[in-house]
Amino acid sequence: MVLGADGDGTGCVPDGPDAGMDAALGALYGSGGAAGRGSAGRSGGLGGSAPNVARWLGDIRTYFPASVVQVMQRDAIERLGLATLLLEPEMLEAVQPDVHLVGTLLSLNKAMPETTRETARAVVRAVVRQLEERLASRTRATLTGALDRSARTGRPRHADIDWDRTIRANLKHYLPEHRTVVPERLIGHGRAAQSVRKEVVLCIDQSGSMAASVVYASVFGAVLASMRSIATRLVVFDTAVADLTDQLDDPVDVLFGTQLGGGTDINRALAYCQSKITRPADTVVVLISDLHEGGIRNEMLGRVAAMKASGVEFVALLALSDEGAPAYDHEHAAALAALGAPAFACTPDLFPDVMAAALEKRPPPTP
């Protein structure tokens, strides 16, 4: 843009690949385009033509890395109002799938024609698969370790002895003449039970600002549901509440079962979650919301206090995404913290550690 030939640049005219790169940037961010509104009175040059946009999408994938392509796609949707073009299968096949695109597709779900729906599901499934490959293994390993530690016993069977911790705990009993440690105290893990040991309730705000969080939470919900020792319930809400637990085996079904947008009634959602808790001392409730409550504030806080008093471990995530510091209701976040329910934003990579801490009833890691 600095080197561009228009009035914003130096007047130099690029050629070759630089000319193509400049044209791709100018179509989105430059001035003088005939259609598509930008910010501050500037106009883009993509127009409203699906073939033009599809060609531009191919160009930016040629000239820029995937991370830049995703930013430019998001800017095109926001600045030029191209969301409706995503209802065309040809457009969906041209875009670079990412979390933000999934959020846009979900917001258009109800308006999506049948000819586009299968293509949209394929795009969403590709993103979900990428997220599962990135996050699933570490999540299972981290939570399995937390469950094992919570079941640690001082009288383990031989096969359950944690030899590393046992040796470190008994180093003071080292016998130099025999070059060995005589363990006076054995440390081990309780034998893994086949039955459910912990229950997790994911309560997800599906208002439009939480789109990325909904995507990540759905993937994590499916991962948690695949662990036999954790019973997972997934609830989404706006002013109504929907229990999507029976769809957890396929996060794509979960995502298409959400409806982004609308108001927010956290109190109603927590009332539903509270009614489903049968083992408070073994339950973790994770509220994922920006806390802009449209329901009854005092009742919402009262439900959190009641759950905490019954033994439930309660965590409020202001966002579950990589989008940086979120906008949220600071007063409600402070009120939850005063009740002993931490409220903070969390990246997807930190989420397994947050859940592990909750399962072990210890303070969450610092974001």
Structure notes:
By secondary structure, the protein is an alpha/beta fold. Helices cover 45% and strands 12% of the residues. It has a 6-stranded mixed β-sheet. A two-stranded antiparallel sheet has the order 1-4. Strand 6 and strand 7 form a beta hairpin. Helix 5 crosses helix 8.
Layout of secondary structure:
Layout: H1 17-29, H2 50-63, H3 66-80, H4 89-94, H5 99-107, H6 114-150, E1 152-153, H7 163-169, E2 174-175, E3 180-181, E4 188-189, E5 198-205, H8 211-225, E6 230-237, E7 241-243, H9 251-256, H10 266-275, E8 283-288, H11 297-310, E9 313-320, H12 330-338, E10 343-346, H13 351-359
Parallel strand pairs: 5-6, 5-8, 8-9, 9-10
Antiparallel strand pairs: 1-4, 2-3, 6-7
Helix pairs in contact: 1-2, 5-6, 5-8, 6-8, 6-13, 10-11
What is the compact description of this entry?
The chain is an alpha/beta fold. It has 13 helices and 10 strands.
Could you tell me the strand content as a percent range? 5-15%
Beta strands, count = 10
- Unreliable parts: 32-44
Put simply, the count of helices is: 13
* C-alpha-based Rg, rounded: 25 Å
Overall mean pLDDT score? 82
Shape: globular
Structural class: alpha/beta
User: What sequence of helices (H) and strands (E) makes up the elements?
Assistant: HHHHHHEHEEEEHEEHHEHEHEH
Task: Describe the largest sheet.
Answer: 6 strands, mixed
Terminal residue distance: 36 Å
What percentage of residues falls in helices of 4 or more residues? Answer: 40-55%
- Major β-sheet strand ordering: 7-6-5-8-9-10
